[in-house]
Amino acid sequence: MNNRRRSLLEVLLISTKLGLTSFGGPIAHLGYFHEEYVRRRKWLDEERYADLVALCQFLPGPASSQVGIGIGIIRAGALGGMVSFIGFTLPSVLALIGFALFVGKFGVGEMGLIHGLKIVAVAVVAHAILGMAKNLTPDLRRKTICLFALLAVLLVPYAFVQVVVILLAGLLGYFIFAKEGNTNHDRSVAFPLSKTIGVVSLSLLFILLVGLPMLATAMPSQWLAMVDSFYRAGSFVFGGGHVVLPLLEGEFVPTGYIGEEAFLAGYGAAQAVPGPLFTFAAYLGAVMDGWAGGLLATAAIFLPAFLLIYGTLPFWSALRENAKMKAALMGANAGVVGLLIAAFYTPIWTSTIKHPTDFALAAVLFSMLAYWKWPPWVVVVVGAGCGLLFF
């Protein structure tokens, strides 16, 4: 076996191990990656890892998945990024497709298990909002952007408004926070991709973003509509995996592709599996169109993350110096906090918390996450068990 194949196999095995064991969300994933890739295996040093994490926080998309893809690229070239993604993502994709097929076959939509998972979603999203608000809206200007984003999404309840809000928040940040984004760096870290790959990847990203809606309109098809919706959601998610919730809810629940009960149950179940939260798309796709739909949805929602990381790595040294790009991201991040608060109110809260018992269980689950620091998968098991016992 030559060195390239050995490196690819090594990336696949290690990333699969992490995909089976990395519970706890994107911040925890970055900790697992640091321990495995930097401290234990020394595939990259602290400086390069910090640069890679900074880039992936800077971009829209699933940050931990993009870091994993970047590490695969560093270790085994362009193909290594794809292999790393497969290993880290496939376990949770298969688990959530299996759960979707189970729900579809046995019709458990009215069972207490589902209600328990919905209450888990209340606790998880509330915990995510508090953490994100603390980090992403620390001053009055960003709190104000967050408030206007919240009002816009609640008062104009159309899916396209969410994307418009993110873009407008980024535009406000571009003008308001230019001085805050202006920081100096005295180091430059290169990544092993050519600028040609970068240009092709970014070009394809924007071509698909514009072309898929036009194609879906010209050639009506459920699969094309699914690809368009998941691709667009994956292109505009800033601030972590939880932000994908309002974008996907706006795309699929009002249109009748999936009911609120099934949507929130899947979101609760997604907390119980390791790996990236974006694999929630696999559950949605499988509910709508079986296992093939699950795989298609997964490919569509993660494709922008691939194109962004392959497209920006060759230019990161210059991009990281751009103060106005950082300023735009500061505004966009404040906007997505508003989006998430709106989604927390509807559909999560309004369709789930209807009795004092619901609120009591949500409070207990939230405390387990926020104060007692229990692992998320334990919280999911407790919530599902209480649903079976009490609802």
TrEMBL record:
Regions crossing the membrane: 85-107, 113-133, 145-177, 197-218, 291-316, 328-349, 369-390
Subcellular location: Cell membrane
Record flagged with keyword Transmembrane helix: yes
Domain of life: Bacteria
Membrane topology: Multi-pass membrane protein
UniProt xrefs under Pfam families: Chromate_transp (PF02417)
Keywords tagged on the record: Cell membrane, Membrane, Transmembrane, Transmembrane helix
Major location category of this protein: membrane
Family from the record: Belongs to the chromate ion transporter (CHR) (TC 2.A.51) family.
Stored PANTHER family: CHROMATE ION TRANSPORTER (EUROFUNG)
Name assigned to this protein: Chromate efflux transporter
Gene coding for it: chrA
